């Protein structure tokens, strides 16, 4: 369902992503691990065209773009295929939880407001936020804000949800509730690509783990391989340090 070929990204002279190939099947949970500064966020951002790739091809669902020659319309179509959960939540401060989740349904999908709010309510209930529908982000804990962020991503109706370290800005007490919501999503076979430092979580939910370092995919495989029997020395060293 997702096919990335030869994806590269340069910032000036620095090649941050080097010829990345990536395949993700429908319903698959792919977890990306690796040291910081390795290009994990850049990879996710390129998939959503938040960052413009320097080269390569991206296909998500039935939308395929070639980084060399891509039209505005193709970028728009590609963006609709995925949604993002950011480390920093990135909620609208002047909108309630309900309005934050309904926003893309109204602006991107052109749904009538009542229908969008009703869908948003259901999604917020599904992430355990029924008591906080009318609250503004500043009235919510970090864990609650991130659950709104996840409900908002679910509302986008894309093929895949991209998570960039969704728990790393949270106080430790809020991490588990956010991971629990992600586990529930994984059970429903929502296709997800998750960058995380939560190794235990990765081990539990991933169908495939990708270890990235220095802008390349060093090794990928099932969690049993990456955590239990890594084939590459650098994977071995990283996993040993992270454990
Ligand atoms: P990770 O998410 O694995 O920590 P990033 O994808 O954020 O890594 O960053 C990879 C490299 O790209 C880093 O060296 C970072 O400094 C650089 N980088 C990221 N974004 C930009 C940018 N907008 N301009 C210049 N360099 C950037
Ligand atoms: Mg990052």
UniProtKB/TrEMBL annotation:
It is found in: Cell inner membrane. CDD domains: ABC_HisP_GlnQ. Belongs to the ABC transporter superfamily. One of its GO terms (molecular function) is ATP binding. This is Amino acid ABC transporter ATP-binding protein. Pfam families: ABC_tran (PF00005). It is a peripheral membrane protein. GO terms for cellular component: plasma membrane. Keywords: Amino-acid transport, ATP-binding, Cell membrane, Membrane, Nucleotide-binding, Transport. InterPro entries: AAA+_ATPase (IPR003593), ABC_ATPase_HisP-typ (IPR030679), ABC_transporter-like_ATP-bd (IPR003439), ABC_transporter-like_CS (IPR017871), MetN_ABC_transporter-like (IPR050086), P-loop_NTPase (IPR027417). SMART domains: AAA. It comes from the Bacteria. Residues 2-239 form the ABC transporter domain. The keyword Nucleotide-binding applies. Its main location: membrane.
């Amino acid at each position: 369902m997702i096919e990335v070929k030869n994806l590269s990204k340069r910032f000036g002279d620095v090649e941050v992503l080097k010829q990345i190939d990536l395949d993700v099947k429908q319903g698959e949970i792919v977890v990306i691990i690796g040291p910081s500064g390795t290009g994990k966020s850049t990879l996710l951002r390129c998939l959503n065209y938040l960052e413009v790739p320097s080269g390569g091809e991206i296909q998500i669902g039935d939308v395929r773009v070639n980084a060399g020659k891509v039209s505005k319309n193709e970028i728009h179509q590609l963006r609709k295929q995925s949604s993002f959960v950011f480390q920093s939540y990135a909620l609208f401060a002047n909108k309630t939880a309900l309005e934050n989740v309904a926003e893309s349904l109204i602006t991107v999908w052109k749904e009538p407001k009542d229908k969008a709010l009703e869908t948003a309510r259901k999604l917020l209930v599904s992430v355990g936020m029924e008591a906080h529908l009318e609250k503004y982000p500043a009235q919510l804990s970090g864990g609650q804000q991130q659950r709104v962020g996840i409900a908002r991503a679910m509302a986008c109706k894309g093929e895949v949800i991209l998570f960039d370290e969704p728990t790393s800005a949270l106080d430790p007490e809020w991490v588990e509730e956010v991971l629990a919501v992600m586990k529930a999503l994984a059970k429903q076979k929502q296709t997800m690509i998750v960058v995380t430092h939560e190794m235990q979580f990765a081990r539990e939910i991933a169908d495939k783990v990708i270890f990235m370092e220095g802008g390349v995919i060093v090794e990928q495989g099932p969690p049993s391989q990456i955590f239990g029997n890594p084939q590459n020395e650098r994977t071995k060293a990283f996993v040993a340090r992270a454990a």
